[in-house]
Amino acid sequence: MRHQSPSSWATISICIAAVVHFALGFSIEFSVDEAHYALYAKHLAWSYFDHPPLVGWIQWPLVTLTSSEGIIRLIPELLWVSSALLVHQVTLEIHRLIQGRNAGYLTTTLPSAKLCGFMAVLTIIAAPLPHVLAIGLLPDTLLTPLSLGLMLMALRWTRKDHFSIADWVITGLLLGLAGLSKYTAAFTAFALLFAFLASPKKAWITKTGFWIATVIALIVISPVLYWNWVNDWISFKYQIAHGSGGIWAWRRVAAFAGIQIVCFGPLLLLGTYLFLKNCLHSQKLLLIALLGFFAIPFIIFAALSGGGGLPHWTTPAWFCLAPFAGIGIAKAWATQHRIAIRTLLIAQLLICLLGFGFVLAGGINTAAIKSNPIADLYGWKLAGQKASELAAATKANGIAVQNWTLGSRAAWYTQPLPVFVLDQRQDQFDLWFGQLPVGASVLLINRSGMAFKPPIGGNMAFEACESLDSLEIIRFGQVLSKFDYSLCRNWQDAGVAR
pLDDT tens digit string along 51-71? Predict the structure, then answer.
């Protein structure tokens, strides 16, 4: 490390991680969410049932040109690299803020800004879960750099005497794009508002620029508002129900906390503790307001986790915490407290490497493990090709599955065939392909990892299903999964459950 500056090592580290992501991106097929959002790009609309449209719009140029998963995954990779670079830049700005406001205070003397930036980048590279979002595009992959961009604008607000019109325009665009990425961008907007309120001597609500930014943000998110208006606000209704989850329980909150530590690593927590202990001596309100970019969304998600939730939802918040953690770790590193830092860093990197190898190997199928989640990343391309051939041979009206998580890969890998999801929930597939017509015959796909009995008999079922063929997916000598194909005839009643 002595032969390169910390900034150079930060760039080198980001490039190494990007190469690993790039290799993995060409090695595995689409996950359920990736295929779902790639279908957004195939079916361009002002918005969608479960998310705002930017995750589909941004993929449209590449999806139009190619179906290669690796090429399409260049988009999340570029977003991850941008996020890592923004973490570095935000760290430099926070360092400048602390040193500028606290010059002469020995307790807040910091190591070099470049070392702090490098350590902040390392906390992100050593966090296991963000690598998943670097390979597969999710709305959170988009929201992460936009949240960091808004955090950077909040720092500019605290450091500059006044905001120019250009600053307000950029802030409005970032807010609007965040709203087009995910509805939880509202939490980041609250954090930005908190940062404005933390500088009471600066007027902002009476400024023309503030209202210009507000109008710009509303214009940018207007497609989402218009689409929901003409579709009976179904997206908002779904998100409210989805966010509230099931029956609230404290054990889910405890599980959420444990999963977060595993997914993002203790290094971020250690660095944040060291920052709060050693660097939060003056301008506390200002720094606490900036910490709100992590605290506000994280606390809300933790509260909602009592009813259920997914671990990657907090990813933008953790990226916004990384600059503070980097400064705390750099300060401890400069004072020779390096053993714990090295141990945690090496342990987390080994976990990441183990995860990469686990994915490439196709996971492990053993009796001790009920299911192999990695198996879901292999075989859908072959399964889709066989399904298309069987559908053509039997003159089926389309493809049918019995859960939406099966539907997204089926729709991507059998396109342009329509895919019907035979469950009782309304979803995006109903908007794309409509309801299965009465009397229709379809090719039913069943996968061993999520197997269902064929829907035969009753008011909402087929008259009969005939088994046609099956396909085993084998990787490195182990059977990962099995696809079964049946021709199901004469759908008895369409849409009763809906």
Answer: 999 999 999 999 999 989 999
Query: Is 318:264 a contact under the CB 8 Å cutoff?
Result: yes
pLDDT at 3: 65
* Bridge partners, residue 85, by sequence: none
Q: How many other C-beta atoms lie within 10 A of the C-beta of residue 106?
A: 7
Reduced DSSP (H G I as helix, E B as strand, rest coil) percent helix, strand, coil of the chain, to 5: 65, 10, 30
Token readout for 94 is 């926070």
Token couple for 334: 């400069």
Distance from C-alpha of 126 to C-alpha of 138, rounded to nearest angstrom? 20
Return the SS3 of 288: helix
Task: Kindly state the tokens that stand for 106.
Answer: 């020995």
pLDDT at 131: 96
Residue 370, H or E segment:
none
> Residue type at 440?
A
Q: How many CA atoms lie within 13 A of 351 on its CB side?
A: 20
CA triple 328-329-333, angle to 5 deg: 125
Q: Does the pLDDT value for residue 85 go beyond 60?
A: yes
| Section 263-277 average pLDDT | 94
| In the predicted structure, residue 97 carries a pLDDT above the cut 80 | yes
The tens digit of pLDDT for each residue in 233-242 reads 999 888 877 6
Q: Is 5 helix (H, G, I), strand (E, B) or coil?
A: coil
Nearest 5°: the CA angle 349, 80, 25 is 75
- pLDDT-derived band at 366 (thresholds 50, 70, 90) equals low
Task: Domain ranges for the chain, please list them.
Answer: 6-360, 375-491
Q: Residue 306: what residue type?
A: G
Can you say how many angstroms the Cα of residue 179 is from the centroid of all Cα atoms in its chain? Answer: 14
Cβ within 8 Å of residue 102, ≥6 positions away:
108, 281, 282, 283
**pLDDT score at 205:** 83
- What pLDDT score was predicted for residue 198? 86
How far apart, in Å, are the Cα atoms of 382 and each of 378, 386, 429, 481? 9, 6, 22, 12
Amino acid at 372: N
Cα→Cα distances 313→10, 52, 84, 85, 107, Å: 26, 15, 18, 21, 35
Average pLDDT, the chain: 90
To 10 degrees, what angle do helices 32-42 and 404-413 make? Answer: 50
